[in-house]
Predict the 3D structure of the following.
Amino acid sequence: MRNFPWMVQIMILAFWMWAVPTAAGACFRPAPGTEKKNGMNTLLFFWVSGQMLLWGVFQLICVPLVLLEQEFNLVVKLFGSVAALLAVCGVVLAVVPARRQGRQRSRGNLVPMGAESPFVKKKMWLWLVFAALLLLQLVQAVRLSYRDGDDAYYVAVSTITENAETMYQKLPYTGGTTEVDIRHGLAPFPVWIAFLARVSGVRAVSVAHVAVPLLLIPMTYGLFYLLGKKLFAKKERLLPLFLIFTELLVIFGDYSYYTVENFMIARSRQGKSALGSIVLPMLFLLLFTLLERLQENQKFGTGNWILLCCTILAGCLCSTMGAFLLCMLMAVTGLCAAVSYRRWKVLVPLALCCAPCVCYALIYMLM
């Protein structure tokens, strides 16, 4: 890929960051006539849920190969093949039912991201303010450099992985050979960045500092948009204000090195940022949906349970700390749901979704 023109490399990178996750996320398309009003049958939801699916699959593929000290090229081949297969399956699942139902009916079921967009409503100027603030954050995240010692490790891991074919077997500070770093190898988010660099031909440093912020920051606000659709279902006119105030909290949230806002803007390339800004809000969205279904005596659906499990795996990919945080959140939500709605059976699938976290936590403690 390095021999391709730079424009072609950028197009390939955009394909893997936007098109493939969106196509794969179509596997979670709700049944016709359901979830139409709260944004969970839109291209935006497909994009976010598809990224959770791909991150979860990457975690399942990469960690065993890291522990077995296999070459990075094997990860590229296996994950690339599985991701392409999931994208094809998503397209088939989205297109075939639409053809059977006819054009008119399919348009009512599959809602493009812009079809229910509030840009066509009276508060358009609020959405323009939101778009301007989002553009400002994207420009500043790419334009400004940030003094962060973690770059000496995480970005170096991505660069070494891409060029040396080894995963967590070289010291990122000196380049010397060492034993497999189990602590960081259980959360191989930098290896995912190296995968994007390998398949596109763009340098890992450029992917980490330029492409990843342009991917993860819009995804964060996309998730807050989906959460706002649920929180303000009866007062949708407040949704743009909710997003604008969220942006202001992010812009002025750099009062410490360790705030979520700091990680979101300045450290987007680190898995800890994706955990706090994307995975946890996605988990809140899914658990909110679960509680809604329990309250209305409706089924959560097999696809939603699979997506919930993939989100848990995505949290493990981002950080070893994610295994503990996500398990605690799931446990608290499960107990509250069981007591409030007297649906003790819900604890079983929630516990099964937490099983990957428990496995990775045991591996971390034992090794």
In short: The two ends are 37 Å apart (CA to CA).
